[in-house]
């Protein structure tokens, strides 16, 4: 009986410590976007994305430099930064939000589950609400988060000249991946 009580107390302390970690940060998250258009597909990857999750409050934050996106063709990268997202004028894209079903989730147990992030994304100086599914893979060592969603380029005041409308999709697919290490 004493052994069972001790096991329960140790379990509660361990769970409490796991939940009291505060924000977990990944400074090398990955974001990609994919544009599928009649004349060509365009894909870019940014491997220097800053992501943070606070497991006490259920909040999320993401920040990335637009110049951190790299393309297969350097000319695409130049056009992306200079003509479309104007990276010198609007250097960052951000997301701030909450896990809307946070109270129902248990990040102290290993396993995979889906959650919903609800917040605001800012690209090209334009803020828009964003609600997206996030898959979490939880282990004793780390916490991985993966999401995928679509964005309409016009929603962020990014103008695509009619001469290249067959080269660039009106809606692009965005994917992001973070691997948050647990403090040792």
TrEMBL record:
InterPro entries, A to Z: Lipid/polyisoprenoid-bd_YceI, TTHA0802/YceI-like_sf
Organism listed in the record: Imperialibacter roseus
Membrane spanning residue stretches: none
Limits of the Lipid/polyisoprenoid-binding YceI-like domain: 39-176
Top-level taxon of origin: Bacteria
The protein's name in its UniProt record: YceI family protein
SUPFAM superfamilies: YceI-like
Pfam families tied to this protein: YceI (PF04264)
